[in-house]
Amino acid sequence: MSEFVFSRLQYDSGDWDKVDPRMPANLLDSLVAYTTLPVHPREIVVPLAGAELFDAAFCYLSGRRLVQFSERERLHFERYVRRGGFVFVDDCNHDVDGLFARSFETQMAALFGPGALAPVPNDHALYRAFFRFEGPPTTSFELNGWGDDLVHDHLRAIEIGGRIGVLYSNKDYGCEWDYDFRNKRFLAEDNTKFGVNIVAYALGL
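RE: above sequence
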């Protein structure tokens, strides 16, 4: 089995490099703890406009500010997804009307058509890809009333050929999991388990 690499997407606009710096190490620790997947020990940064994108099996894109892809970034994003790539996109503003959400959703509508981002039903295979969930776990940001003061009942996704190519969250999982992995022992339940599901689904485990 190939080594899993957590690839963070670099895009020219926005603040992709200013969000959830500890989250990748935390998720990688969970993959080592719960699975037999060989894991590269550190995240790597992959330019969306670079050719190395097409070697990545799993990509992560996040931020709080404007998402305005360049022409080459748009071309690569669409081509990567249509060729079977997987992108997990997480809005660090945890809302539905912030700058990241509005601008990213506009980009997706332009690339894949209006309505391409559709709710993921809570009985989707994503929620039983490794651990079993009844739908997307709620984050502390939603429960504390930050952002849009909503608990989002569904994630959204763009499916290509019956499989998710873009998984999109307004729940701010990136910041929810942005803590030193050694602190998981203080939690009643490891909240990164859903991240394991996302990776397992993306890789078809």
